[in-house]
Write a structure and sequence with these properties.
Layout: H1 3-11, E1 18-23, E2 29-35, H2 38-43, H3 51-59, E3 62-67, H4 71-85, H5 88-92, E4 100-104, E5 112-116, E6 121-123, E7 129-133, E8 140-147, H6 150-163, H7 178-181, H8 197-214, H9 218-234, H10 238-257, H11 263-277, E9 286-295, E10 298-308, E11 311-312, E12 318-321, H12 330-341, E13 352-356, H13 359-376, E14 384-390, E15 396-400, E16 408-409, H14 415-444
Parallel strand pairs: 9-13, 13-14
Antiparallel strand pairs: 1-2, 1-3, 4-5, 4-8, 6-7, 7-8, 9-10, 10-11, 10-12, 14-15, 15-16
Helix pairs in contact: 9-10, 12-13
Length: 445
């Protein structure tokens, strides 16, 4: 294909996401690629000095494309087409780079992970992977691939996990993990307590859903979900019907609108969302979260965790051993922790403070902030405050902020804001209870 011919093809390409395919004289695929911007991506081939790319474009006689609704759809479609047609230059142009695969374990609650092309694969063709025997067990792990972009694949799984939660914990534990609190884990899969067959089926359904998505079967899967929702409604199981409808809507939004974004853009969305919620023009860069851990007021401990630009900064995590004998009074303990914290003016001050509790905690923290920022820290601007309230299942339910008489449901927040607040709260709880257990073990010994 001459440069002039390639330019003519590029002129007809859209600027949205999709797949492009260079074909030879026999209409056989030479190379298949994905792009966020089809026109921009293929246009870059005109400027390349890479000899392999130049050879491919010289052999090419035509260029075809398929537009997709999102980057995620393009990633999955590219994988399916590469696996189906095995283009010559998709191998040549990767040099020593390996493709990425999504692995599915065979445990009771299977793990999902991303890996490079495994070495002991069983193939039926060059790209179709059936299974691999793990080195240290007889479990069989299935794989889906190949995928060319590991970062995009990781982001895709991140989106899908928000609709179909699954477990990533490395070992069983007694308390719910962080991902449970932000809606990315079902909660029972990583606990040491027994699970029912109903629990196992719910988890297996989520794993199967992700398999279907990555295998390019989104449309048929959604069709089945709609049918299942309709059947549930006919049986007056409206709770199930609404749950399925919500999953369908979330899934459709992901495949229609989701772009594979950088973490810096996620951070920006966290900040702007919270700023709007709290009606402040000052950027919310630094957030401190607090929690108290005790049993009937004995051996009480507290924690402070710090998030900067939406991410934990463990250099500024702090532990507090409660000195005052408060009896089981979490509010008084929280007040003690904050009073001690604000004596440390060498620690960077937060833009926002998040605590666990209700109106009592809100008033206590406001009192401490007011005292220290009006008398001792006049040069500092007082931080904003959010109090997170839990429901009967100990999951985040609503928030209180100063100046508002009523609470705000977490469901009314954007997913980014909601997950950030839940993540900070869960991390503060984890850090506090870890310190409590350490002190309790020392005392027991």
């Amino acid at each position: 294909m001459t440069t002039h011919t390639l330019k003519k093809h590029i002129a007809g390409l859209p600027s949205g996401p999709g797949i492009y395919m260079f074909k030879d004289a026999r209409k056989k695929d030479l190379y298949i690629g994905k792009a966020t911007n089809l026109k921009g991506r293929v246009n870059s081939y005109l400027k390349t000095e890479d000899q392999k790319i130049r050879k491919m474009t010289e052999l090419a006689q035509s260029l075809k494309f398929i537009s997709t609704q999102s980057d995620i759809e393009a990633l999955i479609l590219e994988s399916q087409l590469i696996k189906k047609f095995r283009p010559q230059f998709n191998i040549v142009m990767r040099d020593d780079k390996q493709y990425f695969y999504v692995g599915f374990g065979n445990e009771n609650f299977p793990k999902i992970f991303i890996t490079h092309q495994p070495t002991k694969l069983v193939y039926s063709s060059q790209f179709t992977v059936h299974k691999i025997e793990t080195v240290n067990s007889k479990l069989e792990t299935s794989f889906i691939g190949p995928f060319t972009d590991g970062g995009a694949l990781k982001t895709t799984l991140h989106f899908l996990r928000s609709v179909f939660p699954y477990c990533t914990c490395k070992q069983l534990h007694h308390n719910h993990c962080l991902n449970y609190h932000i809606g990315r884990c079902l909660g029972f899969c990583c606990l040491k307590s027994r699970t029912s067959s109903k629990d196992k089926k719910a988890y297996a359904d989520n794993i199967n859903a992700i398999r279907e998505m990555l295998n390019g079967k989104k449309n048929s899967f959604v069709k089945e979900l709609r049918k299942e929702a309709g059947n549930a409604a006919k049986k007056d199981d409206f709770e199930k019907a609404i749950e399925l409808r919500d999953k369908i809507e979330k899934l459709e939004r992901i495949f229609k609108n989701a772009r594979i974004i950088r973490s810096s853009e996620i951070i920006k969305s966290y900040r702007s969302g919270l700023e709007t919620l709290l009606k402040t023009r000052k950027p919310i860069v630094r957030i401190e979260g607090y929690d108290v851990s005790n049993i009937q007021g004995t051996h009480a401990t507290g924690s402070m965790v710090t998030f900067v630009h939406g991410r934990p900064d463990k250099n500024f995590y702090r532990k507090f051993k409660i000195y005052e004998k408060q009896s089981p009074d979490d509010t008084a303990m929280l007040r003690e922790i904050l009073e001690r914290r604000f004596r440390h003016d060498e620690w960077p001050f937060p833009n926002l403070i998040l605590v666990d509790g209700g109106k009592a905690q809100l008033n206590a923290v406001r009192s401490v902030i007011s005292n220290y920022y009006t008398t001792l820290l006049k040069k500092q601007r007082a931080p904003l405050l959010v109090v997170l309230t839990k429901d009967k299942k100990h999951k985040g339910d609503k928030i209180y902020i100063p100046g508002r008489k009523t609470s705000i449901s977490l469901n009314k927040l954007s997913p980014a804001d909601r997950n950030l607040l839940l993540g900070i709260d869960s991390e503060a709880h984890r850090f506090a209870i870890g310190y409590y257990r350490k002190l309790h073990r020392k005392l027991f010994k």
